[in-house]
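Suppose you are handed a protein chain with no further information: no name, no annotation, nothing but its sequence. What can you learn? This example shows the usual starting point.
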Amino acid sequence: MWTQPDDLKRQVQRLWDRGVLPREVITGGRGFPLKLSFKGPSSKDLTDGFEGVRDGVLSLRSVKAYRLCWREVRHRVHGQQSIPHEVWIDSLNEALTHLGKQREAAILRGLLNDTLGMLPELMPWLEHRPLLALSLSDDWRRLLLLAQWIKDHPRPHIYLRQIDVRGVDTKFIEAHRGILGEWIPWIMADGVGRSPVRASHFTLDLGFLEKPARVRFRSLDPHLRLLNVPTPNPDMTLDSETFSCLDIEVSRVFILENEINFLAFPPVPQSMAIFGAGYGFEALSKAHWLRASALYYWGDIDTHGFAILDQLRAYFPDVISILMDRETLLAHEAHWGQEQSPTHADRERLSPEEQQLYQDLRYDLFGERLRLEQERIGYQWVCQAIDQLMHTRR
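A reasonable first move is to predict its three-dimensional structure. Written in structure tokens, the prediction is:
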């Protein structure tokens, strides 16, 4: 089947959608004249559908953007015929007009001029990502001003809120972390050859201050005074740096993933509780004084609970899990629920018993995506488990 006029139009549209034509706008159309992929009508096409071929050729000739190259053929039925065998577009403007993209091209040229005038170092990026630039056109000048500020203030050691650029606020910066991260290798003096800065590492990698991580903790012993506070069992929160500088002498530390369990945890002599609140234990990792105590972790009995335990052991290898065992799971079948998005990664830091239970959950031995949330475990069961722990660990 020979190439139809609609096929050619779709081919030109794909060149825009893939960024080829937008890139030509940035580079000045140096890729033109542009030859399109074209298969001309064959002798069989002329025999089987001469009228259709004639109409298709007339349609091609009516498109101003196309320049047709012809060849002469002699057909046994229709005699001497001129048929197209190549299709060219001679200029970028003709391609843009054909697609109706003149407005977008004008916007791109405006972005090009702004970039050349403010941050010409970004020209390689603009040439590589013209469609993304086009989608950011309303914010382009503000982004350039912000990028210029970052370039002029390397590793400023301030909060993002303290950046003073006209039209730029913290929400704007947060919304554009990704694009700014892509620009860093181009605009920073030490950025050449570096990978883009990931949005999640934006502030840290560029030397901005981050909101300090906080550690929430409480005494489990009314006779144990933390920080010389007279209130029994106070609920306190410190930034991680201050927490790491403490020197609290406790025998046991319980890291708990549920706030209510953290608040209602039974009294334990010479012990304290820390509210874990999910993945990420960097806030605790610098508190070396914790290593002098017996550490216990209590999380949900599901794949993520064991994943968090596995991660915690990367910082504290000797941490012991509690109430995350098969007996507890089976005793609370009436309270089983389901995980929304289980994890299936291998875990290398689990004990043999933990590993077996994790595998059973991972492969749905007890039921699909099974989960027992820690707050659904009976309170008496919790108290008995802690009491038994105290007797066996004395």
